Amino acid sequence: MVGYDDDKEQVLKRLRRIEGQVRGLHRMVEEDTYCIDVLTQVSAATKALQAVALQLLDDHLAHCVVDAAREGGEAADAKVKEASDAIARLVRS
Question: Cystine design at 3: which of 16, 42, 63, 89 (Cβ 3.0–4.6 Å)?
Answer without folding.
Answer: 63
